[in-house]
Design goal:
Elements (H helix, E strand, L loop, with lengths): L1 E11 L2 E12 L6 E14 L3 E10 L4 E8 L2 E2 L4 E12 L11 E13 L5 E12 L1 H9 L5 E11 L2
Antiparallel strand pairs: 1-2, 2-3, 3-4, 4-5, 5-7, 6-7, 7-8, 8-9, 9-10
């Protein structure tokens, strides 16, 4: 579970600078690990209406990681929207306690279909394929963890 609390400031007509903290909790067998990180982010709309969200995380242990995300809304009708999304994770150094290796760590590919009852309220169904890459993939395989997941998604998008 990850929760970001961010202050956002518009710096160009289509781009926000964000600053804040992230609380993350990882559940596993035995110990639950809590982690706090500082966050510096850019979020906005790129040319051709691609939405982007780039976040740099600095953990309480001084570890640096980066998440890069891009998505695009394909309107099927005025209310029905197909949204592909790609997200990539990077670590700037090995983080053994999180089983992360230096370099690209993970890739997520989403495809969501949402119905906008109102622009502010839209239920969706989707599919997510996520997999580990690089050194992180090798670390996970060596410890017997799954390196690929296929998930079905269901949720509600709120905007305000």
């Amino acid at each position: 579970m990850e929760t970001d609390l961010l202050y956002s400031r518009l710096i160009t007509p289509f781009c926000n600078f964000q600053l804040g903290v992230q609380y993350a909790n990882e559940w596993g067998e035995g110990d639950n690990e809590d982690r706090w990180s500082g966050v510096i982010a850019l979020q906005g709309l790129a040319p051709y209406k691609f939405e982007f969200d780039n976040s740099l995380y600095i953990s309480e242990d001084g570890d640096f990681s980066l998440e890069v995300e891009a998505e695009y809304d394909l309107r099927i009708t005025q209310r029905l929207v197909l949204q592909p999304l790609v997200a990539m994770g990077f670590a700037f150094q090995d983080i053994p306690e999180r089983s992360l290796g230096t370099g690209m760590t993970s890739v997520k590919l989403d495809l969501r279909l949402r119905y906008e009852i109102k622009r502010e309220f839209a239920p969706y169904l989707g599919l997510r394929s996520s997999f580990l890459v690089g050194k992180t993939d090798n670390i996970a395989e060596a410890s017997g963890q799954d390196t690929e997941q296929l998930l079905f998604l269901a949720g509600v998008r709120f905007a305000f």
